[in-house]
Amino acid sequence: MNLQLTVPNMACSACSETITQAVKAIDSTATIVADPKTKLVTVETQQSKTAVKAAIVAAGYTVAE
């Protein structure tokens, strides 16, 4: 499943790394591209959108629809 999520409070490369690690924790084979400039996170994963969003929120970020 390919997901594209907006994370408004992702501000820097450290934020994108934290988000990447949070998603990798629930799916170690996921491919994640997090761009702080556009606030977009693209995830290729076998997990559900709900699970990916929950992992990002648990890492301290908000996910906009």
From TrEMBL:
Report the InterPro entries cross-referenced here. HMA_dom, HMA_dom_sf
| GO MF entries | metal ion binding
**What positions does the domain HMA occupy?**
1-64
CDD domains to which the protein is assigned, alphabetical = HMA
Could you identify this protein by its name? Heavy-metal-associated domain-containing protein
Which species is this UniProt entry from?
A: Drouetiella hepatica Uher 2000/2452
* Lineage of origin: Bacteria, Bacillati, Cyanobacteriota, Cyanophyceae, Oculatellales
